[in-house]
Amino acid sequence: MNRLVASGALLLALAAPTALPSPGQAAAPDQPRAGTGLGLTSKALDVVMTNDGAAVVALLDRAAVGQPYAVRICRIPAGGSACALTATLSPPTPDDVDDSTGPWLVTDGTKVVVAIGNHDGAAERTYAAASANGGATFGPMAKVANVTATDVELAPGSNGLWIASNSGPTGAAADYQAFTAAPLPGGAPTSGATFSTGGGSESVDGLLVGVTPEGRPLAFLSGFAPGLANGTYYRAFNGNVVPTEINDMSKWSSTPTRYDLGAPWERNGSYDVTSGAGRLWLGYEGLQRDTVLRPFAGGAFGAPVSPDCVSSRFSSGTQDAPDVAITRTGDLLVTETGSNGNGMFLGFFHGTADGATWSAYSELAAAPGIRDVETAADPTSDTTGIAVWTADDIYGGPVSFARIPSAPPVGCSSDVGAKVGSATVTLDGPEGCVPSGKKYQLKVTRTKGKGTIRLVVFKATGAKKKTDKAAPFKTKLKVKKGAASGSTVKVKAKVTVRQPSGKLKTKSLKTSFTVC
Length: 516
Fold this sequence. Notes:
Blueprint (H helix, E strand, L loop, with lengths): L3 E2 L30 E7 L1 E6 L5 E7 L8 E7 L7 E6 L10 E8 L4 E8 L4 E8 L10 E4 L3 E6 L6 E5 L9 E8 L10 E4 L6 E9 L5 E9 L2 E9 L6 H4 L10 E2 L8 E10 L2 E8 L5 E6 L2 E2 L21 E4 L5 E8 L4 E8 L10 E6 L3 E7 L7 E6 L6 E8 L11 E5 L2 E6 L10 E11 L2 E9 L5 E3 L4 E6 L9 E11 L5 E11 L2
Antiparallel strand pairs: 1-7, 2-29, 3-4, 4-5, 5-6, 7-8, 8-9, 9-10, 11-12, 12-13, 13-14, 15-16, 16-17, 17-18, 19-20, 20-21, 21-22, 23-24, 24-25, 25-26, 27-28, 28-29, 30-31, 31-32, 32-35, 33-34, 33-36, 36-37
């Protein structure tokens, strides 16, 4: 996630676990926060999991106002509940104390790298330190790039870092996006490609980096600048995937590609980008959906999906992006926060690799404050992970974590049932969304009671009516080609049942599903 740390003293505190209230009964402001407390405080953090099932947590903080920031690293062993401090890392030079960004943790399962950014208005810097043993020990922090990071990824092959920034080495006011292929700690610092406006009003943020399924960098930005209308964009890299070309501005698209969507998928607040297992996903809170996700493949974004069967679970949005972790098989672990106006809630979903089927919403924690949630998948599992968060991302608060349990994706059922005289019949519809132009099956069965189904008339939005006079009462219909993603397909089955008395009774069963 994108992090900028401002000034403020941090206090050491221990957050005790507590029972979680329901969304209708939020924790009182003075109630201890939920989750397992780490006995540490921070306003910015990150987490990764290593091949032995341990979680490595990075916390950016400082002893007092006016003191330089440092990164504390702690490690939660597999199955453990305590986070043992393994390193405290500081930049080698006394940089500006009020403008540090990060931290970011990246890993290939064994090697772990932590990075932070720092600038003083005249010089831009990114520092990093590396561990070769899963975060148990770290080497010293060293400068790796002449830009101030806004996001960091481990390059394919684990031999360098890809760093996004909002300006080049001098921090010029006309700069609005920069990208650097940097070495691991110990290598010569680099500058990279810098895009500038040439002057004029601008407001740009959301400067993130992703790794495409083809192993190429993809740079993101949001906002406006001269010649750039207000919106969200990605900038593609067109050269060979080597540091010299990645750092060459001419190898990047001169014009970024806009990818904003209309209703019901409009973005509301920040967004996040996650790469792993040969996949790239974008996530954000939507104006009409609590969480919206989009896959990137083949040089473009795919259709949006929403993991929740409920379009708006919370009465108050947080505008915080959901956090997405990708498992070793490509499945998705998604955490989201919401509020009922009195407290905050942290929940998760487990989705299949294509984003088509999801587990039901499961609550992980409830507390007055749940901020800067960071999520990581467990490399020893296909379905589990960990979430870490702070109570306060402005002044610093207690840091807590919760393990994400296994939750099988089951889909959002569109099945409905009703009594037709003495018989109970069920209309089985699609499990989850159906893409435009694709077929889906409808089926009617008697599940209880007495009586015989004699006739079923199937109807659906954009599809021809079909009549079935013999068992099994099922049919295949098709979503109209060109149907808008997020639109609703309404389905009706008019069912006629012969009662034991010989009389015929008819009732219509109605349901609906969304277009992927």
